[in-house]
Amino acid sequence: MTGASAMSRWVDPDTNRRLWRMSGPMILANVAVPLRGAVDTAMVGHLSEPYFLVAVATGTTIFNFIFFAFNCLRMGTTAPTAQAVGAGDHAEVRAILWRALLLSALISTSLLALQLPIVDVALWMIPASAEAEAHARTFFLIRIWAMPAALATYAFVGWLYGLEDARMPLVLQIVTNLINIALDFLFVFGFEWGVAGVAAAGLIADFAGLAIAIVVISRRLKRFDGATTWAQVADGARMRRMLAINRDIFMRTFCVVSTSAIFIARSAELGDLEAAANQILLNFLMFTSFGMDGIAFAAEALIGEAIGRGNLDRFRTAVRTVLVWTAAFAVVNVLIYWLLGLRIVYLMTDIETVRQTAETYLVWSIAMPIVSSWAFSFDGIFIGATRTKTLRNTMFVAFAAFLLIVFGPFAELNNHLLWLAFFMFLTMRGALLAACYPRLRLSLERTGTS
């Protein structure tokens, strides 16, 4: 048997093309997300006082914590849309979008109503100078008004992913970033609005992106025959299903975001050297996540479409393709970090003590892609199958293990312990979902449907 024929047993050419048609743009979109924050940082980095930089970093952290926690609106829309497409239910494809937009409106309205207590609690938890805190408050209280646009865009992007369209979300991301950059220059250096200008630029850019998304979605809806009635959108059983899916994914995402926040906070307690080294090494994991997230997002659509069709062969093929590519990506990442990791660290800092500290803990970054591959791939598989309760419960166990290692009675805080906790968090996420996979497959084989 040749290598090509052996590979074809695992990776179906058609499924492979579909996966990479989505994964490629998704990976680029993932890369574009942190660039926006980097530009904001660069803008205020040229202002007169360092507390402006701290203020934007603090305000952005608060906004992004909330924003990323509600990524459930994107994930919770993709799989149901893909399942409806696979089933050929055009009315439900349209109704899912309206339900997601309704939920995004309810969430954003609640966040706007609670913005003052949110910022008060957040600033109490994040120590900063009086000047930095005042400007961070200004930043957040402007930026939070972008939440309706940002969350609605989540719903639009999730719906497009469910249609296996990853190019338009990439275009939206790029255009929004370009608008944000242009307005940053205008407001910060032209109008001299400082921190408020950075926040206003983000606010306007998000609504501009939403306006473009509305035009795109309006045209895309015309491809699906028939009209959608309020009775279809507000169908009790389907509304409850959507709420349950989003609830479970929200809890799962909250654990992920909290794990990263705790890791960074505990790193700071160890001292500046460990905190700086960990921040550099986290970039390795971020780079890995760009690729694996792209594959996992594509998995949601592929798995959802197969289940919607009731086609178990298509489901199994999609699972194999996703697992093969995440494993391959992990191996490539391990080799890159093993061979070039120290050089990458040296490119990221000139401070010799930070370099030496990062070198001590580099082994964790080299090993992370292996366990990450299971966590990311099975995330995509279970979200695509809308088995979000299993996803939530396994995440709770993994998060509890992380907390036990970091804060447990026998824990003695050191940097290796922190990295071990993060490593075990990712390991348990993947291992627990892998252990649950046979039950998922068996349930689909018994019913032949989702």
Secondary structure layout:
Layout: H1 3-10, H2 13-45, H3 50-69, H4 72-87, H5 90-113, H6 115-125, H7 130-143, H8 147-162, H9 167-190, H10 195-221, H11 230-233, H12 236-270, H13 272-309, H14 312-348, H15 352-384, H16 388-407, H17 415-447
Helix pairs in contact: 2-3, 2-9, 2-13, 3-7, 4-5, 4-8, 4-12, 4-13, 5-8, 6-7, 7-10, 8-10, 9-10, 12-13, 12-16, 12-17, 13-14, 13-15, 14-15, 15-17, 16-17
The share of residues in helices is over 70%
Main β-sheet: number of strands, strand sense, barrel status? Answer: none
Number of strands: 0
What is the general shape?
globular
Radius of gyration: 22 Å
Q: Which class do the helix and strand fractions yield?
A: mainly alpha
Query: Would you identify the regions where 5 or more consecutive residues have pLDDT less than 50?
Result: 1-5
Question: Could you tell me the mean pLDDT?
Answer: 90
Number of helices: 17
Q: How many structural units, i.e. domains?
A: 2
Strand content: under 5%
